[in-house]
């Protein structure tokens, strides 16, 4: 009988010691390393842009551009402006106003410098380094002749093809019960 009671007390001591050790040593450290990590960037999806190219007073074709901005999420919360509108304006200014791209010589187009100009232009307007990167998923030129021919086999001239990955899709909300 004494052996049975001693065994019970021994199991009780081991159980209490295990619970105490788990409570004492199982807690996370006082410093939270997640607070040191910068917040993840935010993606701002731009509209599919159709930009007319005018030569000699006539439309000679259209640029088709699909892009996304990678912005600082903390700064984005502080501003209340429509970022796709700024992105559209920068594309118009560079492609139509400044004519940084000659369609006849599209093979020598510097995509990295073009993306940097867009980023720097938007950041200069915002007066803060809001835009971290510009992702261009598609940039094509379709001439007026292709449009007028209505030939389904003719394709637009590819200027930028998948240089950047698609932005991640927002996570779907889980259904509640």
Question: Any overview of this molecule?
Answer:
Strands 1, 2, 3, 4 and 5 form a 5-stranded antiparallel beta sheet that branches. The mean pLDDT is 78. The protein is 38% helix and 24% strand. The chain starts with a helix and ends in a 16-residue tail after the last strand. It contains 5 helices and 5 strands; from the N terminus they run αβββαααβαβ. The protein is α+β, with helices and mostly antiparallel strands. It has helices at 2-25, 73-78, 83-97, 111-126, 144-149, and strands spanning 42-45, 49-55, 58-71, 131-143, 157-161.
Shape: elongated
Order of helices and strands: HEEEHHHEHE
Strand residue content:
15-25%
Outline the low-pLDDT stretches: none
Q: What's the β-strand tally?
A: 5
Protein structure class:
alpha+beta
Number of helices: 5
Average of pLDDT: 78
The percentage helix is 25-40%
Radius of gyration: 29 Å
User: What's the story with the biggest beta sheet?
Assistant: 5 strands, antiparallel
Assembly type of the chains comes to single chain
* Beginning-to-end CA distance, first to last residue: 54 Å
Describe the secondary structure blueprint for this structure:
Blueprint (H helix, E strand, L loop, with lengths): L1 H24 L16 E4 L3 E7 L2 E14 L1 H6 L4 H15 L13 H16 L4 E13 H6 L7 E5 L16
Antiparallel strand pairs: 1-3, 2-3, 3-4, 4-5
